[in-house]
Every structure is written in structure tokens, then in C-alpha cells.
């Protein structure tokens, strides 16, 4: 046999032998104890536990992890819409250096004071289109 044939044969044998290695069986799980009968639910209201306050609602984030807020404007991030909502201007939004305004149709501008140019639903972020474009 030639040296190349021997090396090839040896490589194949070693490679296939790795497939034959078996892992040990896992230890058996402990037996499951018999089930206890479940109590029937009562129709009487259960009193709340005194001294344990209810969990507070998760605070609404003021900013987005992906988009910078508008410069100098009072706004908050609306994750459902995917934009910043300007607090002091009705139906005015901001994302990626563009302001969007809904007034019976969409318009956009690079400043919150305009000049505004008309656009359609395709020119606004998808969350806004779903909310107002109906």
C-alpha cells in the first residue's frame, strides 16, 4: 500500500471510530410522588394580603435605545408607534432627524416649525401609518 492510501485509510478509521463512542446513560430520575387531590375553588372572594403593595406599573421610557430624541424638544418615546411624541405639539412626532405631523393627512419637515411638505403613508414610520393611516 502506498503511504497516501495508508494515511487516508487511517484517517477514515479514526474518524469513524469517533462516531462509535457512546455516552453513558443518564441516572434515572427519582419517582414522582402521587398527586394530591386539588381543592375545589371557592366562590367567596379572597381577601387581599395586607402590607404587600401591588406591583407598580412599569415606567414608560423617555428615550429609545435605537433613536436619538429630538433636539431641544420635550418628548417621550412611544415604543408602539416607534417614534418620539412631542409633548407640546398635538399629533407631531420625530424620528431620525425628521418630524412628522398628522392633520387629516401626513406631512413631514426637518424642523418642528416647518416648512411642512405633504407625504403619504409610505413616507412615515410604519407605527404611525398603522395608528393614523386608517
From TrEMBL:
<feature type="compositionally biased region" description="Pro residues">
    <location>
        <begin position="25"/>
        <end position="50"/>
    </location>
</feature>
<protein>
    <recommendedName>
        <fullName>Lipoprotein</fullName>
    </recommendedName>
</protein>
<keyword id="KW-0732">Signal</keyword>
<feature type="region of interest" description="Disordered">
    <location>
        <begin position="23"/>
        <end position="78"/>
    </location>
</feature>
<feature type="signal peptide">
    <location>
        <begin position="1"/>
        <end position="20"/>
    </location>
</feature>
<feature type="region of interest" description="Disordered">
    <location>
        <begin position="111"/>
        <end position="134"/>
    </location>
</feature>
Amino acid at each position: 500500500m502506498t503511504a497516501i492510501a495508508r494515511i487516508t485509510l487511517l484517517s477514515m478509521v479514526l474518524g469513524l471510530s469517533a462516531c462509535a463512542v457512546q455516552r453513558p446513560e443518564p441516572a434515572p430520575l427519582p419517582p414522582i410522588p402521587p398527586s394530591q387531590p386539588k381543592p375545589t375553588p371557592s366562590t367567596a372572594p379572597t381577601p387581599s394580603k395586607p402590607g404587600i403593595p401591588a406591583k407598580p406599573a412599569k415606567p414608560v421610557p423617555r428615550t429609545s435605545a435605537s433613536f436619538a430624541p429630538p433636539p431641544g424638544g420635550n418628548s417621550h418615546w412611544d415604543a408602539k408607534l416607534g417614534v418620539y411624541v412631542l409633548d407640546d405639539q398635538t399629533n407631531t412626532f420625530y424620528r431620525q432627524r425628521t418630524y412628522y405631523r398628522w392633520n387629516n393627512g401626513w406631512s413631514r419637515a426637518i424642523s418642528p416649525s416647518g416648512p411642512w411638505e405633504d407625504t403619504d403613508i409610505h413616507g412615515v414610520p410604519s407605527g404611525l401609518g398603522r395608528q393614523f393611516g386608517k
